[in-house]
Design goal:
4% strand, 64% helix, two-stranded antiparallel ribbon, 13 helices, mainly alpha, globular, disordered N terminus
Length: 294
């Protein structure tokens, strides 16, 4: 089932058929599909998401000396530097948890956000050849990056769990909420990444700006320090960043630290859904023109 780029750009007629049935012509239209139809298209091509994710996993560490070991080394090295600067030098509180463990947990969770935003931002222009040749819902490209990120998270989580045991800390039933916090974080990250990916088709500066912005956002989130250091008068403003309470919730589930206020978690959940839907809607509005621009 293949539709040429020219078909898509000029109205997009997709042809399906089999030896036993007459071909079915589906007119995609000159612009947007109805929302319900677009969702069905995304679901119909869901297997392509897995294919794209497997390709990314295979290619990411090919021709590297250490290979997939980087998945573990990167958060360990980053957490070591951050814990030294914020814990040893700045002496910021870590809620009674050893500084390195506190920072490692925060950075592990943060890396889901950072990786998802940066990879999904480049997902459209990085697959320009694919976009210009065949039809499929372009939303699948940023979504496919999430699978590899979740696998990385699961691998490094084993290291985190080993650290907990070495420090005499045994997780309890709160650990079961970790998938919820990861899902909400992915919604925020995928929404932003999809938004930036759409803009990057026309503005190639975006993939260069996003990694810098993400790096700056790290310091605006409680990755290597406790949110308790934020002055009370700035608390509401600080927690408009949905990543901040979500990091607190993740640490509460894993390390047993104090949970963030419920109102900030509820706000973060609403923001996650809104950002994801807004980013997806923007991509869906513009994808009919991608093959002509990318």
């Amino acid at each position: 089932m293949v539709t040429g780029a020219g078909d898509q750009a000029s109205g997009g007629i997709e042809t399906t058929g089999s030896p036993h049935h007459e071909p079915e012509l589906v007119v995609l239209g000159p612009g947007r599909l109805p929302l319900g139809r677009y969702v069905k298209e995304v679901w119909r091509y869901r297997e392509l998401t897995g294919v794209l994710a497997r390709r990314e996993i295979k290619l990411r560490y090919r021709q590297t000396v250490l290979g997939a070991t980087w998945v573990i080394l990167q958060p360990l090295l980053s957490a070591g530097i951050l814990s030294f600067v914020f814990g040893r030098v700045a002496r910021l509180p870590t809620d009674g948890v050893p500084s390195f463990l506190f920072t490692f947990a925060g950075f592990l969770y943060w890396s889901v956000f950072a990786s998802s935003v940066t990879r999904s931002t480049s997902s459209l222009i990085g697959n320009a050849a694919l976009i210009s040749k065949i039809y499929f819902p372009r939303l699948l490209l940023p979504l496919s990056t999430a699978w590899a990120i979740v696998i990385d998270f699961a691998v490094v989580s084993v290291v985190l769990f080993a650290m907990l045991l070495l420090n005499g800390m045994m997780p309890d039933a709160r650990l079961l909420l970790v998938p919820v916090w990861v899902l909400l974080l992915l919604l925020v990250a995928q929404g932003l990444g999809t938004f930036f990916a759409t803009l990057s088709v026309a503005y190639r500066d975006i993939p260069l700006i996003v990694p810098v912005a993400v790096q700056l956002a790290l310091f605006a989130s409680p990755v290597a320090y406790s949110a308790s250091v934020v002055p009370a008068r700035y608390t509401n403003l600080y927690n408009l960043n949905p990543v901040a309470p979500l990091i607190g919730a993740f640490r509460w589930s894993v390390l047993g630290t104090a949970p963030p206020p419920g109102r900030f978690l509820a706000l973060a959940a609403v923001e996650a859904i809104v950002v994801f839907l807004a980013g997806s809607a923007l991509l869906e509005r513009g994808e009919a023109k991608f093959a002509d621009v990318v």
